[in-house]
Design a protein that fits this description.
The complex is a heterodimer of chains A (about 110) and B (about 120). Chain A contains no helices and nine strands. Chain A is mostly beta strands. Chain B is built from no helices and eleven strands. Chain B has strands at about 5, 10, 20-25, 35-40, 50-55, 60, 70-75, 80-85, 95-100, 105-110, 115-120. Classes of the chains: A mainly beta (about 110), B mainly beta (about 120).
Chain lengths: ~110, ~120
């Protein structure tokens, strides 16, 4: 089955840029989606199809995907961005839906 | 405005069957390109996808849980039902249903609030 690997935690100071990676075999050939989950809340889609943002998501959130790594980039990080972030792909050949293990973003 | 809400028991005993209902509004599951999925999250752990049903009644299941899961839809009632057999304490989790859209891959763009299911005798 397809595996997505995320770092357990990332820390960043307010106003700086946070980068959260999602590793997978040839992930660049797949479409990657990213979710933000704050404590006690349901996940929220923040990036889909590698780099598109749903309406209402700030431009500070962006994504990229190439080779074996996809990256969620959060610019000008705010305290309110502190949350768990999950990547997800859809793979028609095996497990249709796969989530990464999640990354806890801490704003220092 | 798309909304989804999960309902079902909050406590089930080991070996029992769990039945969860997702009631939604703001879209039709008979519209091409639409799906509804179930995802769960044990306390303090990561998201785990369970099942997905498409507008054309095609269904997909997590390979590791496939033998225990059944997903069905009732388009007239705007509901999707998930059943999971032989429940175990490790199945204790918050269960979410979510609207699934498709572009270059399926993703979940609207989520219910989730329902916590505890498995205990």
């Amino acid at each position: 089955s397809y595996v997505l690997t995320q770092p357990p935690s990332v820390s960043v100071a307010p106003g700086k840029t946070a980068r959260i990676t999602c590793g997978g075999n040839n992930i660049g050939s797949k479409s990657v989606h990213w979710y933000q989950q704050k404590p006690g809340q349901a996940p929220v889609l923040v990036v889909y199809d590698d780099s598109d943002r749903p309406s209402g998501i700030p431009e500070r959130f962006s994504g990229s995907n190439s080779g074996n790594t996809a990256t969620l980039t959060i610019s000008r990080v705010e305290a309110g961005d502190e949350a768990d972030y999950y990547c997800q792909v859809w793979d028609s050949s095996s497990d249709p839906v796969v989530f990464g293990g999640g990354t806890k973003l801490t704003v220092l | 405005q798309i909304t989804l809400k999960e309902s079902g028991p909050t406590l089930v005993k080991p070996t029992q069957t769990l039945t969860l209902t997702c009631t939604f509004s703001g879209f039709s599951l008979s519209t091409s390109g639409v799906g509804v999925g179930w995802i769960r999250q044990p306390p303090g752990k990561a998201l785990e996808w369970l099942a997905l049903i498409y507008w054309n009644d095609d269904k997909r299941y997590s390979p590791s849980l496939k033998s225990r899961l059944t997903i069905t839809k009732d388009t007239s009632k705007n509901q999707v039902v998930l059943t999971m057999t032989n429940m175990d304490p490790v199945d204790t989790a918050t269960y979410y249903c979510a609207h699934s859209g498709y572009s270059y891959g399926w993703f979940f763009d609207y989520w219910g609030q989730g329902t916590l299911v505890t498995v205990s005798s």
